[in-house]
């Protein structure tokens, strides 16, 4: 694939993701709000199962965190769309997702970035969130073979959402109404409520990242180097 071909593909995928979120029945009103406010940044990467673009992705996350601290207004998301692979089942996608997140966390630690003190680095803890550039992030995974329609996008993608923006909504009394609206819309879209989202606040958010309905004894494969610091 030539550089021009890849640039065209990336532009097309960015448009497709925007269309996916803008669809009337897409349930996440938070993502819609971020896009409407021009606060949805879309990056392109080559392969979810490869570390080819990990350094670029980490730099973008750290920059996104700094920009948010300068101006925390509005909802915002950073989306990374991967060219492939397109044949991963839910278990395979989950494994690749955590491999990428592990690599990004290792880079954050190696660069001496502090873990956001408002969250926990232990993925078994109910207060767990990822941390890049000193800001906590919640991740939503999308891929072609997701069982949930709201997670079923034509290419693998990772959507990074800043944890603090949801805490600000909670402090303003706007978080629970928004969450209830998302759950209701998702139930209409899929026919039944996402069992992983229904557990929000009771267990670690790590179980929600891939979109797969994980088993009761599921253990997150992620371990941040700073967890025991």
At a glance:
The protein is an alpha+beta fold. The chain is built from six helices and five strands. A five-stranded mixed beta sheet has the order 1-2-5-4-3.
What does this structure look like?
The protein is α+β, with helices and mostly antiparallel strands. The longest helix has 21 residues, at 90-110. It has one domain (3-208). Strands 1-2-5-4-3 form a five-stranded mixed sheet. It has helices spanning 3-22, 29-36, 54-70, 90-110, 163-171, 175-190; strands spanning 40-47, 77-84, 130-132, 135-142, 157-162. Strand 3 and strand 4 (135-142) form a beta hairpin. The radius of gyration is 17 Å and the shape is globular. Helix 3 crosses helix 4 (90-110).
Q: What is the overall number of helices?
A: 6
> What is the structural class?
alpha+beta
Helix % is 25-40%
Number of strands: 5
Give the end-to-end Cα distance, rounded to a whole number of Å. 44 Å
The largest sheet has its strands arranged as: 1-2-5-4-3
What is the count of structural domains? 1
pLDDT averaged residue by residue: 91
3D shape? globular
How much is the radius of gyration in Å? Answer: 17 Å
Beta-strand share of residues: 5-15%
Order of helices and strands: HHEHEHEEEHH
Unreliable runs: none
Main sheet summary: 5 strands, mixed
Keywords:
single chain; 229 residues; alpha+beta; five-stranded mixed β-sheet; globular
